[in-house]
């Protein structure tokens, strides 16, 4: 559903079978920020979301949201992200709410949030709510859900305004996703190369070409190592480091 909404996704290996058992009926979404110290990297908290902390075993959320708007699919099952609380009468947050951990320190050093990340947050929440047949009122901040009141302060966002933006998308008047073209623009005498991404139905020869350009083993598998190398290259050239090889990234690779 996220990809259908034009959003970027990255599948974390093993996500299909990861979780503390199965979820119950999905009733809504709890929004979080990671509170990871230091504004470094796109999703530095990912390993913690998967494996957990010393005081709480992972997975800690179904989804992670990077600073570049990429959704990391962490788990399909129940995750420990909610704790004690209540929203719209629901008290079993871990079983009935999907948790989204967005990468942000929660401090003045990481505010305002990147526009591309906020757009993805709104669009992703709207896509999930539409899929489960719920309106924007079934999206809550962890700080709104948690008991006793004041136990949690995340996310550092105006959740009333957040839900208003989600409602606009559900009503069909919100800002659309920044969709990456499926291929390069057509040019006379040249075959347009498709956009390549992790988890996509990729042309193996194109993946091998990318890997060769990046001095990787050209095995034709666009996995996490290839994605990380693409992100690194994009970041070095002040591009959005989304790990997706679309038209702009093809030009960058051609010039290596």
Which consecutive residue ranges, at least 5 long each, have pLDDT under 50?
none
- The CATH architecture designation of the largest domain is 3-Layer(aba) Sandwich
Which sheet architecture does the biggest sheet show? 6 strands, mixed
Cα-based radius of gyration, to the nearest Å: 19 Å
Distance between the termini: 35 Å
Beta percentage is 5-15%
How is the largest sheet built, in terms of strand order? 1-6-5-7-2-8
Give the total of beta strands: 8
Number of helical segments with 4 or more residues = 8
Question: What fraction, in percent, of the residue positions are helical?
Answer: 25-40%
Q: What number of domains? A: 2
Mean pLDDT reading: 92
CATH homology superfamily name of the largest domain: Peptidoglycan recognition protein-like
């Amino acid at each position: 559903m996220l990809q259908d909404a034009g959003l970027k996704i990255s599948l974390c290996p093993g996500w299909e079978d990861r979780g503390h058992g199965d979820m119950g009926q999905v009733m809504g979404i709890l929004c979080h920020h990671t509170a990871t110290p230091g504004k470094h990297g796109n999703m530095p908290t990912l390993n913690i979301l998967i494996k957990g902390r010393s005081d709480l075993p992972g997975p800690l959320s179904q989804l992670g949201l990077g600073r570049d708007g990429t959704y990391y699919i962490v788990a399909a099952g129940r995750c420990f992200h909610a704790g004690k609380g209540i929203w719209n009468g629901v008290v079993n947050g871990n079983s009935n709410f999907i948790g989204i951990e967005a990468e942000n320190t929660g401090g003045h050093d990481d505010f305002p949030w990147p526009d591309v990340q906020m757009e993805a947050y709104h669009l992703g929440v709207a896509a999930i709510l539409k899929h489960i047949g719920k309106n924007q009122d079934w999206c809550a901040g962890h700080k709104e859900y948690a008991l006793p009141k004041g136990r949690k302060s995340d996310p550092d966002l105006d959740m009333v305004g957040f839900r208003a933006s989600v409602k606009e998308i559900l009503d069909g008047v919100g800002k659309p996703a920044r969709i990456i073209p499926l291929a390069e623009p057509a040019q006379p005498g040249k075959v347009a190369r498709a956009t390549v991404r992790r988890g996509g139905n990729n042309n193996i020869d194109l993946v091998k070409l990318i890997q060769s350009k990046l001095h990787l083993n050209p095995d034709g598998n666009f996995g996490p190592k290839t994605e990380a190398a693409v992100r690194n290259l994009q970041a070095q050239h002040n591009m959005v480091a989304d790990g997706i090889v679309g038209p702009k990234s093809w030009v960058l690779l051609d010039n290596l």
